[in-house]
Amino acid sequence: MFLLKFRTLTNGWYGGVVNYQIPEDTTRETEEDLSDISYDGEHLGGLLVGGLGRLVDGEVGGDNFRLDIGYGRGNGWVAWNNESFPNKYVELIFEFDQVRNFSAVHIFTNNFFSKNVQVFSKARVFFSFGGRFYNGRPFSYSYMPDTVLENARNVSINLHQREGRFVKLHLYFAAKWIMVSEVVFDSVPLGENYTLETEANMSEDEIIVNSGDGDTSWDTFETIAAPNEGQGYVEVVIGVLTAIMLLLLIVFVVILVLSRRQKLQGSPTILRNPFGVTINMKDLLMNLAPVNSNGMVHVSSHPTPASQDPPSDPPSLTFEQYRSPLVNSYYGPNYATLRTNTASNSEGMPSIPDETERNEVVDEAAPKTPTSPPVATGSFSSLQFRSLQTTPVVGPRSQVINLSNYFPRVASDPPSRKRYHTAPREKHRLPPPVITWNIAPSMGHTYKCREAELVPIPRYCLRMVEKVGTCHAGEVILCEAEGLEDIVPGAGRMVAVRTTGVNTSDALREVRFLAGLSDSNVVRVLGVCTAEQPPWTIMEYPEMGDLAHYLQYRVPKTASIRPAANLQALSFGCLLYMATQVASGMKYLESKSIVHKDLAARNCLVGRGYVVKLADIAVCSGLYRKDYSEIGGRPPAPIRWLPWESILLDRYTCSSSAWSYAVTLWEILSLAREKPFQHLSNEQVIQNAEHMYYGGELQVLLPKPTLCPIEIYDLMCECWKRDESLRPSFKEIYMFLKHKNMGYRPGD
To answer: Is residue 530 part of a domain?
Structure first.
């Protein structure tokens, strides 16, 4: 449904409106009267013409058009059904008493989408001086559909000072019904009459081009001016510029193709090395060659690229397929370990690398052929090698030679750089795991986290102490560890056990993803207990508990306040010290492109010495159940800590975590005495965020805490910017807070 009501801001309530013309929709599927019953004009062929009615009565309809507000259900709204309009839009024409300069139009619409009523998807505005011809390009405005909030709203369209006496609106359907309650034009009357002059010019110099009948496209009505002298030069310039742009595009495509081919081949640039071969004489130490039937190394009679000297008899040492763990994890199946001739042959017949593997190494290093010692005998299936330098002496205690000393490196590369003839690494990256908790990879970033192996923990090491609670993601239990430090060094006396609802490979990957995180300010995954089903994830739990609960039993340490016997005083430096540790942990997660969807004081755990670590268990606690709210069928979310894009669009990035950190910093400096936006309901918090969704700023900001200096509060406000790119990174936040608290030590 679509509801429309009109008023202007100048020259009385009607603002110079003489009449308006709208279509009359006779389709009625509801009991509400949603037609313009107060219209005082004529009814001609399905149109209301020559009068004024409900659209100018100044009454705004309610959010729910089905409710009776005293004048009958549907009062204040005019509605149209899209089945009655084959062009899929409603046409409204407004006539003013004189020519006016229009700056904006405001349309008050309904969005009761559960009853198939939504704001129009697109609006187009046309202007005319005489009412017959609508000249010039119309203004086009697209509206993003909103299926979260069902409240009616005002949609504003900037008209950029266009002039005319007639204004025509095309409103396109986004659902079955369109409903409008009020249309407001911001306009200023012009004293001169432009109608005759404009129509005369059009008849002489312009041709009107209209869309065909029944055209459902969004093409505009445009005017084509008659050709003027000198227009040929403009066409020539446009043609030349177009040709230049095409030429640049072709050059860009060629460069892109060449660079991609170069990357796939792993070679230097084609211009610097046209043959695709990189040779380093200094580091060239080894060449591989197969053995003939007599156990001799076969050497090609053609000179190698590294030397034009004639070939000579090659030296030999047995070269067997690798079996050593020293190189297994690094070189993979394409490389081998070298052993001296004194190695025993009783280990079995070694396997021969295939032709592809040998060619890769030969292409990488083609050595210069030296004068060699006599050839040693070897097995038919073994490989021989020849060296430019004397073979290093291998002691009896170490028969394995380090291959990294023999495989050549490119001189231009740093010594530690690895060079592979493989496809780009991105093609072999694993997709991120399916995350059910709140510490997850950031949206729009490549997943680059290391998934660690899990340490098995016996069930007898864990004694249940307290069940924290359950949530949509799983369950959290506090346990006392007995003998766990013998298995996991550094494990504390208390641990948190976290479970998931299902035992799947995705749940296992999520635990391995968390186990790969290693930072002093992030809770560590100690291991997993498989004796329970689903398996238990064992995590650190500092003995002081969560930061929100810890702060509520503290008072600020000032000269004017003396703490009670059961309350401990905390200085501003101590509070900032703990806040800096939270920023340090988030800085680490940001470096891994990881977000925390539930960053708050309740998810920061405190240990001895005011050590703070980030966790993700508070969503299960019954103490904080009211801090979460469901939005549009999604899992409960901490909307008072989240930015507008996370609340309305379900988008989480590192910049979103920066917003949540500012709210957490506000909690710390307020000693967690109240939750954010204490005086607002959940619906009002969502409406507050919706102002940013439509391009504005927050109408309600968190106040500056009493202990908070102005520069710290300015940092919070920077984190609450609407544009994500304008919010500071955690590296910047951490460096700023560390500088502000420089010199503080726990216990000061």
So the answer is: yes
Supply 690's token pair. Answer: 């919706």
The answer to whether residues 33 and 66 touch, using CB atoms and an 8 Å cutoff, is: no
Find, among 513, 548, 521, 574, the residue nearest to 638 by Cα. Answer: 548
Bridge partner list, 7:
184
**Distance, CA of 396 to CA of 734 (rounded, Å):** 54
Give the C-alpha separation, 476 to 481, whole Å. Answer: 15
Q: List phi, psi (to 5°) of 203.
A: -70, -25
What are the backbone dihedrals phi and psi of residue 385, each rounded to the nearest 5 degrees, phi first? -140, 155
Mean pLDDT, residues 75-89 taken together: 86
For residue 253, being part of any structural domain is answered with: no
DSSP-assigned beta bridge partners for residue 614: 522, 604
Q: Using one digit for the tens of pLDDT, what is the confidence trace for 104-128?
A: 888 889 998 888 899 999 999 999 9
Contact at 8 Å (CB) between 127 and 163?
yes
Q: Which of 488, 519, 540 is the C-terminal boundary of a domain?
A: 540
**pLDDT (average), residues 505-518:** 89
**Domain range spanning residue 611?**
547-740
Asked whether the bond before 303 is cis by omega within 30 degrees of 0, the reply is: no
Cα–Cα nearest to 134, from 167, 86, 88: 167
Q: Which residues are within 8 A (CB) of 747 and not within 5 positions of it... i.e. 6 or more apart?
A: none
Site of tokens 């010039």: 136
Q: How far is CA 667 from CA 471, 545, 578, 735, in A?
A: 24, 16, 12, 20
Do residues 289 and 361 lie in contact, with contact meaning Cβ atoms separated by under 8 Å? no
Asked if the model's pLDDT at residue 310 lies above 80, the reply is no
C-alpha–C-alpha distance, residues 702 and 673, integer Å: 14
Is residue 164 domain-shared with residue 33, that is, in the same domain? yes
Strand, helix or coil at 49? strand
Spatial contact of 573 and 744, defined as CB atoms under 8 Å apart? yes
Tens of pLDDT, residue by residue over 597-630, are 999 999 999 999 999 999 999 999 999 999 999 8
CATH code, 465: 3.30.200.20
Instruction: Give mean pLDDT, residues 722-740.
Output: 94
Q: Which residue has the tokens 């968190």?
A: 702
Distance between CA atoms of residues 227 and 234, nearest Å: 11
